[in-house]
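Help needed: design a sequence for this.
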């Protein structure tokens, strides 16, 4: 989304002071959640609502990432823990794990999962995806994956790929892109990991509405505009501030919808627009107010 889609403020705040407050705000979350087992990871996701699974890429919205909260300096142990726990917790349906935010592996709590699904404004019907196909938002192979799972139920990816006749290197690459696409649009969900060793390891998938029927049902009671507002507000509570470009990449709501959501949250006092070079920075209002006594004492920002 071009930064111009969200009007720029006339005056920028003290950049150094704001950066210090943002660092303290985010540092508070890092200190609060130190994870050494699957239950602690689940607690963190439940309390945050959503987070990246793995370390941020430069330029991504500065939301927490589960990997960065693993309490060990041993990188090999970190990878072993995360690889096991992400699959275990998702297989037990204790959280959602899949390609979602900025098309990266993402954890979502079951409490907030209906809000994510509600942003799409779908009824949860078997032919919902046809509108996205006609609009060009879903590729033909994505349509075939959805139709196949609708007819066949939970299937591991290698078997599904073979059943769809995808055998070439280019075909497998397009299939991998499509699997990410149907997860991001919440038509399809990962179910469990199967296979031993690098060559055999893969996932089973099913339709999202069949894997998480309670979330799809609860989403019926949430207006799409309310869902986007809730997710933007929570993103700001977690990150302290995000740029307009980061917001668009994070959820991919489209320029007009993103602008309306920002305006709605701003009107309710939930964010302040500030200048950030050629972009617009959306800031949690409390971080722009006068420093609190706690901050002056050097204890950092309170964790939301």
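Sure. Designed sequence:
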């Amino acid at each position: 989304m071009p930064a111009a889609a969200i009007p720029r403020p006339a005056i920028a705040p003290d950049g150094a002071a704001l950066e210090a407050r943002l660092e303290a705000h985010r540092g508070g979350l890092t200190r609060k959640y130190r994870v050494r087992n699957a239950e602690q990871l689940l607690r963190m996701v439940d309390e945050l609502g959503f987070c990246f699974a793995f370390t941020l890429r430069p330029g991504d919205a500065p939301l927490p990432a589960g990997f960065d909260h693993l309490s060990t300096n041993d990188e090999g142990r970190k990878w072993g823990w995360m690889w096991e726990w992400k699959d275990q917790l998702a297989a037990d349906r204790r959280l959602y794990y899949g390609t979602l935010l900025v098309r990266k592996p993402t954890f979502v709590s079951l409490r907030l999962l209906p809000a994510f699904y509600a942003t799409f404004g779908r009824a949860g019907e078997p032919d919902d995806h046809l509108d996205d196909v006609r609009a060009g938002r879903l590729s033909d192979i994505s349509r075939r994956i959805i139709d196949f799972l609708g007819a066949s139920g939970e299937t591991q990816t290698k078997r599904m790929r073979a059943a769809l006749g995808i055998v070439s290197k280019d075909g497998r690459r397009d299939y991998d892109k499509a699997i990410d696409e149907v997860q991001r649009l919440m038509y399809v969900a990962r179910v469990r990991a199967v296979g031993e060793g690098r060559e055999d390891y893969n996932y089973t998938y099913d339709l999202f509405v069949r894997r998480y029927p309670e979330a799809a049902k609860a989403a019926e009671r949430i207006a799409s505009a309310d869902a986007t507002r809730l997710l933007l507000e929570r993103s700001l509570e977690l990150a302290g501030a995000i740029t307009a470009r980061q917001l668009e990449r994070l959820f991919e709501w489209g320029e007009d919808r993103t602008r309306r959501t920002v305006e709605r949250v701003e009107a309710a006092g939930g964010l302040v627009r500030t200048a950030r070079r050629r972009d617009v920075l959306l800031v949690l209002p409390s971080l722009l107010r006068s420093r609190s006594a706690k901050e002056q004492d050097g204890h950092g920002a309170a964790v939301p």
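The domain at 124-219 is CATH 1.10.10.10 (Arc Repressor Mutant, subunit A).
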